[in-house]
Amino acid sequence: MAGSDQSDINVTQQTLSGPSLFGAIAPADQKSACECSIIQLHQPTTIMKQTIHIAAAALIISPAFAVESHLDADLKSYVKVSGVSGNLNSIGSDTLNNLNTFWAEGFKKNYPNVNIQIEGKGSSTAPPALIQGLSQLGPMSREMKEKEIDEFEKKFGYKPTCVQVAIDALAVYAHKDNPIKGLTFKQIDSIFSSTRKRGGDDIADWGQLGLEDWKGRKISLFGRNSASGTYGTFQKEALLKGDYKSSVKEQPGSSAVIQGVGADLYALGYSGIGYRTSAVRAIAVGGEDGVLHEPSYENALSGDYPMARFLNIYVNKKPGQPLDKLTLEFLKFVLSKEGQQIVEKDGYYPIPAELAKEVISALEK
Amino acid sequence: MPGPDAKKPDPKRFEVSRNTLLFDRFMGWFIRFGGIAVIIAVIGIFFFIAKVAVPLFRSANVEQSGSVEAGVVPPVIGVDERGEMPFLYEGGSKLTFLNFVDQSTKELTVPGLKDAVITAYAFDTVRQRLTYGLEDGRVGSFLINYERKFNEDATGSWLEPAVIEEPVFTVEHGEGPVTAVSYGDASDPDDPSGARLIVVKRGEGQKASVSVIKLMMKKGLIGTAKLRMVGQTDLSSKLSGEAAMVRASSNGTMILVVSKNGDIDYFARDVLEVNKVQTFHPFEGEVPQQVDLLYGGVSIILTSRDGQQQQWSLFRESAESVRTFGMVKEFPPLPKGAVVFSNSLRNRSFIAGAGNYLSLRYSTSGDVRWEQQVDYKPVAGIIDGKSKHLIVAGDDGVIHRYQVNDPHPEASPKAFFGKVWYEGGMGAKYQWQSTGGSSDFEPKFSLMPLIFGSLKGTFYALLFSIPVALLAAVFSAAFLPLSVKRVIKPMMEIMASLPSVVLGFLAAFWLAPVLQYRVPSVMLMILMVPLSVLMIGYCWGRLPVVLRNRLDGGQEWMLVLPVMFLFGWLGWILGPVVEGWFFVYTDSSSGKQIADFTMWWPQATGMAFEQRNSLVVGFMMGFAVIPVIFTIAEDALSNVPKSLTAASAALGANRWQVVWTIMLPVASSGIFSALMIGFGRAVGETMILVMAAGGTPVMEGNIFNGMRTLAANIAIELPEAAVGSTHYRTLFLSAVVLFILTSVMNTLAEVLRQRLRERNKIV
User: Fold this and answer.
1) A197: which chain B residues are within 8 Å (Cβ-Cβ)?
2) ipTM of the complex
3) What is the DSSP letter of B472?
4) pLDDT of B608-619, one tens digit each?
């Protein structure tokens, strides 16, 4: 059970519960003020980060849990090379903003002459920036839409290259005091979907899930906004591409989902595993065979827990030619042991060494 | 005026100085310029927004862009995603590739088919897979793979077609040669379910049989998977008649067998089982000539021999029933003749042609996007992967290519403002669900739920804030002593400067959970607090004048406030008691009774109760709207000339009469402006609604569920919408709608205000 699983873990103090704050306030703020958050990686970043630390501590929305490490032992340490300098621009996803900032910081420790600018205004800002040559890195929390690839192809004649930098498993969350053990895909579909492609009967009441004491309690549904990658992945995997019920409360950020579920005893929501807090419980999910699986790293990799996706950085790589040195070294850093440690610290799952090696060799070709 | 004994006045004394005149003229022009600039800016913004939205309403543009002499009339035609190099297949082991760019021809042979006798074949455009059946009862398939090669500096590229052969399976059931075949495959690169199937018909007439080969290709997040057969099922005994056509959906979950008597049997595939779900009979007494699956695998397009065309979709007729096929739409009829069909892999468009007629249609709206009479008979056609080209093979042995420019087929006035029957839905309805996880998602772009949400949010916000703000303004302007007013008014104005993100955050994570179980308390408070004030007023009036005179005019609030708080507190405390009396939920099966409003409300009214509801939003929006209305209304009331109020007071009117008969009518136009500005604030409010309204695009007036407003929807979805896509432009269209909504309301209000002002003009 997820509950015992959590309490057994030794809760070492982790300072920054980054995603929960960024998800809730940062995007909202940006939208209302209509301005981009350009993080220039000099002194101000550290100051900004400190304020975030303080804010996180002050609001105490949720301390992040320290989970045992999933870092692949075969991941290589980053080896510094000579002759790396210049400007590196990254424009794209706000989900990856945090991760990107930490990577940039780590990268700059190796190369003090490199200047990195990170803008996180949403995934859809990445393709236009790549096409116009404003950025070398296009972080996206979803995959590029065909329309965006078309635009890119129209300009350059080849497709953009997708670099997988981290794994995000989707979890179904319930309030921490919710006694439910787990749900099968069919039940999840019946709860969240209006078209119910898995063929179950509509479920709106906790009593229908076998909780006798909660008969008559309606399930309060939380989800992500429709344009996010999380929304799409959940729709594809759990609802078999069916429609969501219109009573699913679509939240602007992943942490808003968690906070919503944490504040509502009868709620159920889905979000990335990196956002788990002590107020909620990630419940086990059963696939077609009905056997429940915890959303663990192993289960995500093996496919037993099927709701997992990659976080991507898109780059403009000419076919048959290696990537420019600065971008390549940055991505190598991201895919190194150090880079993947950052991934883990930020609550996502690191990618296996085998895949990292594969991706790097593809970029060097 | 100079006195009589003053010296002769200096005439210059009465002249206005040149500088003042100049300054006056300058300011006059400056203000005029500013005013005009503001108007131009507003119109400019409107046009900019509208300009982004306008392309939505352009119709499709289709033009012929080349042709290649093929010399054959191919039954199967396929093409790469850019429409550059179609291939033709006529059965056998040979594939012919025609290049539109350099007009060259290339042939490829499928090695495994060298000596085989192919008796049936089918092409799946989604996976570029050709499935074939052999005389000896085996079935196999191969994929056509176009690889793009680049030259050294990536300036030029060309296509390199290749064939990838897949395993061959022996059909266990039935006998005779394979007479029809169809392959269904769910293995999206990112879809782990990995179910596949092949439907096979063997033999003809009495000996005919239909069976399914079930395949599985399961893989994790990384790594490669292996294809294995998990079983075969004979469907022959379950069929309504001899099969004429077999179709597997390209996602491998359903099988359709069209009988020669016109019945269509629908089988659904679970992991291991294939079960018959339904038999349906479209086109009374006729056998459909064509049965084609639309992209997404939930809809089929049926075309009869006389050219009728219908869309049937899988949906539930009632909440409990299973998903079955039912007719959803009828398209304009086609001329008679063999039908050419191919669906787009980008949206719900498809080409349909018959006789000399060719058309591009869109299934969601049922529109014909483009149609033309051509001077040849189309025999096969295909839309390329990017939906940019139509490749049509004619009976004259020529392959025609058309360039398609139809970026927004999803958009139409009906899609935005009308009811549409979407795939899988239980009927035509207004629905907003703009994006899905996959490209085969059918977008639902009805703006009605959003417009409704905007109006609903505004209604509840104003319902709460107008009484409070107006009463406060009247009290402050007419009753409060100046010393207190000097403190109160700026305080209210500071309230307006609270960032709405903070308000939204508070509403969502503090107020909503608190109010969830306190609805009866809130109702009681809303009832008791005003009543308590009226009660005090009544009692106060009964008190002897000597006692009343102890308190200066305007100091009564010191007495009222504690009582108000007391009754508010009492309401809060008594809420659960009242809940126990009136709001009791009864469990239908066990008869157990629970006093809980959140459970009682859905049972009693059939409507939902959500934690994030309009009540919470109304309260919090009040914080944003009340200060605006209050300040302006208060100013209007305070600016009523003292001469009027003093005169009426002198004539014996009491304070209330002065307010009611003099101040309110005179200030009415100002108060009206205050309300309109409050309305504007509420309609355009974004962050509170993004965070606290739940973002549910429902169309219910129910106070206990949420809403999604136009503004909140733009804020949530625009940063993730692909620039230039239909979704992106639709969001701009919704901004135009919001703009029009507010300007119409404001114009109406301004007209009304002018009338009020005319009527209550003083002096």
Assistant:
1) 323, 424
2) 0.79
3) H
4) 888 889 999 999
